[in-house]
Predict the 3D structure of the following.
Amino acid sequence: MKNNLEYEGHLYNDDRIFVLYIARCTEREVEPGYLEHVIHHTNPPTNYMWGVVTYRNTARYPCMGVRTFYDKEAAQKYLRKVEPSTPLVSLNGRESGMTYDEFVDWKNQQAFKEYDYKKMYSAGGK
């Protein structure tokens, strides 16, 4: 599968419209009905939670949402459930219908890259 696929005005890194990432995070209500999430790639505070972060699979990976969990196993279970349902460019924004294991095999066959927060830093940045 080629990289940089255009779909509905966005240029995607590969066939996946979204990528998921498990991270330590904190959450606080900033006003009634609105939550703020902070992703902690290094040195999380002691009160962190686990989040499954959904990023749009475009150049700067804008964050589309965070689902929080109190333990990593619950976050992993959620990721396994929802990751195969990510819409694909090649399917005109529809889901593939693959199981999690099939989806992982397919990603490996395509040599897709997973989200890597370190690639978002400027040269020499942290």
Notes: Strands lie at 5-7, 10-12, 18-31, 34-40, 49-56, 63-69. Residues 5-113 form one domain.
